[in-house]
Structure formats: structure tokens, C-alpha cells
Amino acid sequence: MSSQAIFYKTPKDLPREEWFASGHRLCAGCGAGIAARLVFKAIRGPTVVVNPTGCVEVSTSCYPYTAWKIPYVHVAFENAAAVASGIVEAMKILNKKRGKKLHDVIVFAGDGGTFDIGFQALSGALERGHNMLYICYDNEAYMNTGIQRSGATPIGAATTTSPAGKVIPGKQERKKDLIAIAVAHRIPYAATASISHPLDLVNKVRKALEIEGPKVLHVLAPCVPGWRYPPAETVRIARLAVETRYFPVYEVEYGRVRINIKVKEPKPLEEFLKMQGRFSHLLRPENAHVLEALKKAVEENWERLVKLEESGVTL
Amino acid sequence: MSAKKIVEPIVKGQFTYRDLPIGAMIPIPATSLEYKTGVWRTRQPKIDYGRCIKCLLCWVFCPDAAIKRLDDDSVKVDYEYCKGCGVCETVCPVKAISMEEV
Ligand SMILES: Cc1ncc(C[n+]2csc(CCOP(=O)(O)OP(=O)(O)O)c2C)c(N)n1
Ligand code: SF4
Ligand code: SF4
Ligand code: SF4
Ligand SMILES: [Mg+2]
Q: What CATH number has the domain bearing residue B49?
């Protein structure tokens, strides 16, 4: 994190206000719940949240219950970024007419709604350049409908549509590189964050809000039934994802890559994998080649980021 | 308008779809506070205040905002909403939280 971007130095600096309130129906220990609470602690004034369908939507907006304390719109799976674009532009005109200050618009979408189904709308919004913060909480599958593989599911992970069995050993394809795709639109800011590093996360949210134009934040948010682990382990698993280099925490500001959490001596990837049922088959000898493929994908990604950072090249 | 006033007639069926506002808008914030998720719990956290160093990490990480941060930065479990996940226990750096059978 660059020095000018530290808004919250310690947990004490976070506001007490819960814009994302208790009484929602996310599973006990849900990583997306931690992400939502933290993200909306970092808002800086009037904010509208746009949320496509997925776990966060169904569990926070069951009529007549809402867990939101800020204006919230539930939209279709496909069009969160398009709806947000409309809100941004309408608000500009309304605020001008009424002489009010600008509002922030934040999309809060799952990985299915971002990497796959809302992808076209997202690309359009980034290309048009609307002033919004698009946040993807990534639990690496379509969890709300019962754990189907998405473009964010990593190689080897078992889901109901990429099961590990006699025919295939989990998902065969690698994870899409969301940040690279976002950066290809030449947006001013794109970053990753993990719920295990809350201060990095909230500072990035706040930093992104201060930047004019479209911003993308990709947040790792473990899922208890989808990743198959005991609910108490959510934060520990997210931390291992960072410490094994499985999920690099970095930002790309005006095309320049900066790795925010330098993992000098990574823990063995197995430490992260062995805590989760979705990967249990990878630790069996017959699937050693899948484990190798996943390790290779993780290593390649890290090395690529290090090279980009060291060369100082502008993407 | 209180959250109860919106939630009660709907939950009790005194309201039909005809009475809903356009777009099924919910005109007041956080009506979920009327939905007490504490009943989900099978284990519950207990804080040992002798050990607690007020680091606030349990407050930061609770997915349900069920750890309250008081004015003096001490913390307290809100059993009305705590789902008993145990995240607070695993993130506490000084083992001041233990999960107990309900
Ligand atoms: C066009 C469309 N296809 C399918 C669905 C069914 N559906 C609702 S939520 C969901 C999964 C959402 O996955 P993701 O965006 O990753 O969010 P998560 O549930 O994992 O939080 C699906 C497939 C839908 N609502 N709309
Ligand atoms: S299925 Fe996963 S993402 Fe959905 S509420 Fe449960 S823990 Fe959260
Ligand atoms: S057990 Fe889970 S829900 Fe209950 S206070 Fe701890 S973190 Fe929050
Ligand atoms: S995490 Fe532990 S030490 Fe820190 S405030 Fe909570 S109970 Fe106290
Ligand atoms: Mg998902």
C-alpha cells in the first residue's frame, strides 16, 4: 500500500457503524459476510450498492427483511455493471439539479456474476468509463445454487459440475485472470484483497473510491459448504491462500503493478489445500499431476506479477 | 417507522402482495435486525475478560456483526445474532475466546 493511501492504520480506526447489519442469512462463518461488513465500513458518504443475484443477495434481501442500511438495488445476474452505470449517470444529473454532492456507487457481485454471467456488462461499463467501484467477492464457484464451477474456480477443485471421481479429477481448466482483463480496459485502478487482511482491504476500498473512473476490486472470500471446511476456519484459510501465493494481493494503479503483500517464503500449497474438502483428492497419488498443474499455475502467476512489478512496465 | 411495523404484518399474513410498495421496496434500513439468527447456534463463544487485550480482531472478523464494540473498545457477544461459527475464537490472538456447548 502506498503511503498516501492509508486511511485506516489499526482496527480502532474503523467506524463502529454497521452498514451491513446483523440478521442476514449467510451461513455461519461465511467469508462473503466478512467481506461485505468490511467493504461498507470504508464508504466515505452517501453510497448506493448494486448487487446481482447470488448468496449475498438472497440472504440479505428476503422481503421484508433487508440487512442493508444504505440504498440497495438487487439486479439480475447479467447486468449489475449496466445498472450501476445508469445510476452513476442519473445521479450526476440529479445531483447537479439539486446542488448535492456526488454519491458513490459500489457493485458487490459474486464470481459467477462477474467472471461469467455479468462479464459483458462489466466490460461495457469499464470501457465507457463510469465512475464506479466494482467489487467481486470471489468464493470460486456458483455457491448459492449448490456449488457449480465458474470461470473463477481453480484447476483441480471439485464442484458439483466438475466433480472429482473416476472420470475427471475436479475442474480441468484454470482460473480466469480477472484483474488482467480489467486492466486491459486501461482503467485507473484494479486490485485484489483477501478478507484475512482487513486493513489492506478497507484501505483499498477507500483508495479506490477517491479515484475518478471505473475501479475493480477482487476479494477472496472463502465459502464453508463450497470449499468444505469447518466454519471457524474461514479467516485462517483465506490467510493461507495469501501465504502460499495461491492468491496474490496486489494492485494495478494506472497500469503499474505493486504487490502489496510480499510473500518471500511461501508456505507449501498443500497447507492451504489440505484444509478443504474440495481439494482432498489432489493429495492422493493418482492425482499428483493435477496438483502439479495447480502448483504451476500458482507459481507462474506469482512470477509474472513479480516481473511486472520489478520492470515497472505500464500495462 | 420501526422495522417491526414493516415486518410484523407481512410475516403474520395481514398484508398481501397488493399492499406491497412498487418494486417491493423496503422503506427503512436493516429490518433484518428483527430476524434473530442466534437461534441457529449450536455452540457459543465466551469471552475471558481477564485475557482480552481489546485488539478488536473478533469484532473485525465476525461475519454477523455479533461482536459489539463498546465505547471503551471492549467487546461483547450479541447472542441475539451470533450463529456460533467460531471465527472469533480462531482469530483471537490471546485465546480469550472459547466455544462452549449451548
Ligand atoms: C441468468 C441467471 N442464471 C441463473 C440464475 C440462478 N442463480 C442464482 S444465484 C446463482 C449463483 C451465483 O453465483 P456467484 O455469482 O458466484 O455468487 P455466490 O452465490 O457464489 O455468492 C445462480 C446460478 C439466475 N438467477 N439468473
Ligand atoms: S454457501 Fe458459501 S458464500 Fe453462500 S452463504 Fe454459505 S458460506 Fe457464504
Ligand atoms: S461465533 Fe461467529 S457469529 Fe458468533 S460472535 Fe463469534 S464470529 Fe460472530
Ligand atoms: S480478539 Fe480476543 S483479545 Fe482481541 S478483542 Fe476479541 S476477545 Fe479480546
Ligand atoms: Mg461465487
A: 3.30.70.20
Contact A20 B64 (CB under 8 A): no
Cα B100 to averaged position of ligand 4 atoms, centre (Å): 17
Residue B46, SS3 per DSSP: strand
**Can you tell me the distance from the alpha carbon of A195 to that of A275, in angstroms, rounded to the nearest whole number?**
17
Atom of ligand 1 nearest to the CA of A226: 20
Q: Number of structural domains, chain B?
A: 2
Count CA within 13 A, CB hemisphere, residue B44. 16
| Ligand 4 center to B75 CA (angstroms) | 7
Say which ligand is closest to the CA of B85: 3
Does residue B32 sit in helix, strand or coil?
helix
User: Which of A24, A198, A230 is opposite residue B32, by nearest beta carbon?
Assistant: A24
Residue B2 shares a structural domain with residue B24: yes
DSSP string, A150-180: -TTSPTT--BTTB-BSSS-BS--SPPP-HHH
Residue range A37-82, pLDDT digits in tens = 999 999 999 999 999 999 999 999 998 899 999 999 999 999 999 9
Same domain, B30 and B40: no
If asked whether residues B28 and B58 sit together in one domain, one would say: no
Query: pTM of this prediction?
Result: 0.97
B49 and B14 in a common domain: no
Query: Is residue B29 located within the same domain as residue B45?
Result: no
- Mean pLDDT, rounded, for B55-77: 98
Rounded CA gap, A252 and A191, in Å? 6
Cα separation, A40 vs A1, in Å, equals 19
Shared domain for B85 and B47, answered yes or no, is yes
Judge if B93 and B66 occupy the same domain.
yes
For A114-166, the pLDDT digits (tens) are: 999 999 999 999 999 999 999 999 999 999 999 999 999 999 999 999 999 99
Domain span including residue B4:
1-34
Q: What is the ipTM of this complex?
A: 0.96
Pairing relationship of beta strands A250-253 and A215-220 according to DSSP bridges: unpaired
Architecture of domain A11-311 in this structure: 3-Layer(aba) Sandwich (3.40)
With an 8 Å Cβ cutoff, are B65 and A29 in contact? Answer: no
Contact B87 CB / ligand 4 (< 6 Å): no
